[in-house]
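Sharing a chain and its predicted structure for anyone who wants a worked example. Both blocks are below, sequence first, tokens second.
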Amino acid sequence: IFGLFYLGFLPSHWLKLRNLNYPDSFDGGQLVPSSLGGIFSFGMVITLIACLMIVASDIGSYCFGRMFGKHTLSPISPGKTVEGAIGGFICAITMGSISGMIIRWPIGCLLGGLLGALVGVFALVGDLTESMMKRNANLKDSGDALPGHGGILDRIDSYLFTPAVVYYAVNLLIAFFNV
């Protein structure tokens, strides 16, 4: 049952996120003027922002962890460090703040930063959840399709929890701030 939730329900929120449509957001629902074809709808932009925040979190975690990592974050995943987690969190907040200003949310830097903080936390939760499942199964890697990367699940673990959080957070932002 957890597999259905983990690999079915949670990632299905990418579709919900992509289909968000709030015409009052920016210029009639378009990030680019309609003269350019208006190819970027609100849902597409939010989906892209979510992906960019996950990437920023993953890269920040890796870089900060490699440069400054001294304290192990969890016995579940001994390669992850507290310093790496903080670096990933900071990078996700930064990307969220920049994105909030780009899409012209009111107090965009703050709202985008809060969304980035959520993404930073849940990207780490997704990563640790996948590591916990591997430990319980006595596996080092979740597959050999991507040698040296820990398997396919290690590449997508942050992308499993995050879309649901972003989808509901953006809906709350829309409701409370009438973004």
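Comments welcome. Residues 26-30, 32-37 have pLDDT under 50 and may be disordered.
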